[in-house]
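Sequence, please.
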């Protein structure tokens, strides 16, 4: 699995490419005053698009919030499971897992709001990667390297299959770019889990870092969906 730093660069490049952003020099619109109100931009057809309240902006904001919540809820569930000695049926752990699953349902619903037929396959796929983080954590706690390796392998395979699933629904999103985003998610969250298991206070910063990658992922997903469905 690649390093987080490398993923961050690749993921950003993919997000910028998918959403049509440019890293070039300043343009006339950047150096001259604009008469277009803040939060609006001019399209090629010279019509004004509200970039704050548009459907595309709403989708990006929704995915950003839900995917960021996903990381923090996963961290909370794993942290509580560790506190409960790995007992996934303990009341607090079960409640944390239920909140995480509710978040998964909401992420799938956001995708389903644009692709109704894809909502259930997306949910089934998305749910399948969460137990792999649990297995990784339990393997670390029990010093079961085989369990750890199997979980890491499962997460790598999931990233590939998830990329293919998204690409089959949204052709504008290359499978490899989606795969890299998921690998970054796995790598950064695993780093936080390792710190938590070791009792390292750096856990909190690492969890925050893992969450900070998700807006980039949300931008890439929302940009691809908007391009596919011509959403402004």
């Amino acid at each position: 699995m690649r390093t987080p730093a490398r993923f961050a660069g690749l993921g950003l490049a993919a997000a910028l490419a998918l959403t049509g952003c440019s890293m070039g020099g300043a343009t006339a619109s950047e150096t001259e005053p604009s008469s277009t109100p803040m939060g609006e931009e001019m399209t090629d057809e010279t019509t004004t698009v509200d970039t704050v309240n548009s459907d595309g902006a709403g989708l990006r904001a929704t995915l950003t919030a839900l995917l960021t919540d996903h990381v923090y809820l996963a961290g909370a569930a794993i942290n509580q499971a560790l506190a409960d000695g790995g007992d996934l049926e303990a009341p607090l752990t079960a409640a944390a897992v239920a909140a995480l699953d509710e978040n998964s349902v909401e992420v799938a619903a956001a995708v389903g709001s644009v692709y109704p037929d894809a909502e259930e396959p997306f949910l089934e796929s998305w749910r399948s990667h969460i137990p792999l983080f649990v297995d990784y954590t339990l393997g670390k706690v029990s010093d079961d390297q085989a369990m750890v390796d199997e979980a890491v392998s499962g997460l790598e395979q999931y990233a590939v299959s998830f990329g293919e699933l998204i690409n089959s629904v949204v052709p504008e999103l290359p499978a490899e770019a989606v795969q890299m985003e998921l690998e970054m998610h796995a790598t950064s969250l695993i780093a936080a889990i390792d710190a938590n298991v070791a009792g390292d206070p750096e856990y909190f910063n690492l969890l925050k870092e893992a969450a900070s990658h998700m807006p980039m992922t949300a931008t890439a997903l929302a940009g691809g969906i908007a391009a596919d469905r011509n959403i402004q």
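Strands lie at 40-42, 48-50.
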